[in-house]
Every structure is written in structure tokens, then in C-alpha cells.
Amino acid sequence: FEPMKRTERHHLKENAVASTVARATEYYEHHARAVQIVAIAAAVTVLAAAGFTAWRSRVNSRSAEMLADAMTVAQAQIAPPTVPGAPPTPAPAGTFPSAQAREEAALARFVAVANEYPSSPAGIAARYRAAALLASLGRYGEAVQRYQEVVDRAGTSIYGEMARLGIADADAAAGKYDQAIAAYRKLSQDAATLPVDGVLMQLGRAYQAAGKTADARQTFKQIVEEFPASPYAGDAQQAMDQLKG
After folding, report:
1. pTM of model > 0.70
2. Which of 167, 222, 172 is nearest to 198 (CA)?
3. Cα(27)–Cα(24) distance, rounded to whole angstroms?
4. What's residue 86's pLDDT?
5. Element (H or E) spanning 20, and its range?
């Protein structure tokens, strides 16, 4: 056979290209809506990702600002007491007449952050701070509730473990020693970020407050023997000596 002429080869190539284009055109005509949907979905996904990133940035920024404002209130100065017989003077700006007034004002700020941005890092931190203030105000039941909300949202993170410790502290302060002791023991065994010696110190004090002297002495002894360099070792030794006496 004679070699295929260049024009014939070119003609065949053109036919092949034309056939490919025709098939692509036919596919698109039959599946145009599906192709359009896929393209639109891809575009929406990209836009949604960009929008979510921008939204999250705004949330984190705004919640951090609100948390900083609440922290400023919590650390505000207490106005100096009025001197008897002296003419009344207005309190300096940014001060509070008492520690309780300051704590109540800060509590409202922290709760506002936690409610408006419940899942943001600042919102979780604010909820923890609110729980701590409630405990300092003697509102232990509310404190436990807020601490538990932190646990539910923060899981096993540092805030989650600190909140679990806060629950135990609130229960101990409320006289619920059995609940507190159980919580302290569990934390001392499985907490990943909390200092074990600190948790054991709280456990020993809870045993002591509950009248469980032998358990308290054994716990303080554990701190002294297993954590001799601990900042709690001196207090543990002193508590142990008092219990012996």
C-alpha cells in the first residue's frame, strides 16, 4: 500500500477532533443542568468558605474585645473609703464602691460575652470567669452550673479540666464533701494538664473538712513524699503535723 498521504492523515485528525468536540457538545447538551449545578455548588462552597473565615475572624475579634472589657472591670480599683466627717468626694472614674459591686458588674460582662459568643474561645473563657465569680460570691449552685457548661463545651482542654476542678471546689465550699472528694480523686488520676500536687492538696483539705482525718493525712503525706519540690509540700507537711497532733 502506498503511504498515507499527509492530506488524508490531516483529514482523519480533523475528523477525530470534530468527533471529540461533537461528543463533548452532546454530553453538555444532555447534562447541561447537572454541569451547571456542580459549577454553582463549587462556587458556593468557595464563597461559603471565604465567608465563614471572615465571619469567624469578626466573631473572634469582637468576642475578644468584650472579654478584655470584662477583664478590665474585674480588675478595677475599689474606691477609697469615706473618711468620717470629711466632705463627700466623687469616686474616681472606673472605680467601684466595694469588691462585691465590682464582682457583680464584671459578672454581668462575662455572662454577656458567654451568651453572645458561646462557642468562641473568648466566650468559653468568659463563661469560666463567670463561674469563678459566682463561686466567690457564694452562689455555688449557679457556679457549678456555669462550670458544667464550660466542661460541656471545652471537653478535655485546659478550660474543661479547670472547670471540673472548679466544680469540685464549689461543692467543697458548699459542704458537699463526698461529691468534691470523688471529683478531686478522679482529677488527680486522669487530668492531663492540671498539676497533680495541687489537686491532691485540695483533696486533702476536703478530707480534712469532712472529718476524714486518716484519708487527709495520707493524702498530705503523698504530696510530701511524691512531690518534695512542690510549692504545696510545705503546706502539706504542716497540715500533716497538725493532724498528728
Report:
1. yes
2. 222
3. 5
4. 65
5. helix 6-74
